[in-house]
Design brief:
This protein is of the alpha/beta class. It has helices at about 15, 25-35, 55-60, 95-105, 130-140, 170-175, 210, 220-235, 255-265, 275-285, and strands spanning about 40-45, 65-75, 75-80, 120-125, 150, 155, 160-165, 180, 185, 205, 240-245, 270. Mean pLDDT is about 90; it is low at about 1-35.
Amino acid sequence: MALTTRRRALTTLGAALAGAVALPGASAIAGEAKKHGPRPLWRAHAHNDYEHPRPLLDALDHRFGSVEADIYLVGDQLLVAHDPEDLDPARTLESLYLDTLAARVKANHGRVYRGHRGSLQLLIDIKTEGASTYLELDRHLRRYKHLFTTYAHGRVFPGPVTAVISGDRGARVPMAAQTVRRAFYDGRLADLGSPAPASFIPLISDNWTLNFTWRGVGAFPDAERQKLRTIMQAAHSRGQKVRFWATPDLAGPARDALWTELLAADVDFINTDDLLGLEAFLDAHEQA
């Protein structure tokens, strides 16, 4: 993944609002909220999610539909960090993500977001050698029954969380050889139209700057807009979703312009480090 500017510390207003005085009829509204939580923002992808003050939890508080965790294989442990010098034995994939998700899904009767169908995407970016890291990851995922979307003997069985494997390309071979797996492969634009089906590559991710010159300033060139629409049509016709990384992520008109074009083209995931900024943008555009 391209490096992005380290995020600013973000705060939320939830605690401040919790003490608001109840109005007539509020008890009925509260009862409904217990059945159906806030509307998830399925398009929102938390890039390098683990760098937030509260990994996973901050993204869920902002209703994100996808979170990203980079992992390193150290012995038989999967440690979460951006760079090797940041490795901490206490920051494992289990402690930051898997255990928390399992507890949340159990509490929400089988769903990540109470009362809302849909699967949270857990994009796992492998930073060490792909094949060996994936095989260890597979052993870890198998410990969480009923949590993950599963491919078994040619069929996909949806779960509340869908693990998608990105990063080192060496993971592809052992994944493709499995008849049962609890994860899927993150393809690249070169995989569009390849024989690999959506049951193996449900997501196509690529670097925006390697495919488009536009950064949100001025008009989107017609040829590039058509290229984006062609990509989306090709992916969606095969049941695949699309995400671009390295898109502008500094708040301002350029970012808003680019995000607006991504929505107009029906790009499935918008990549950001700014949880609050993307939440506000998607809410304003009434996108789920």
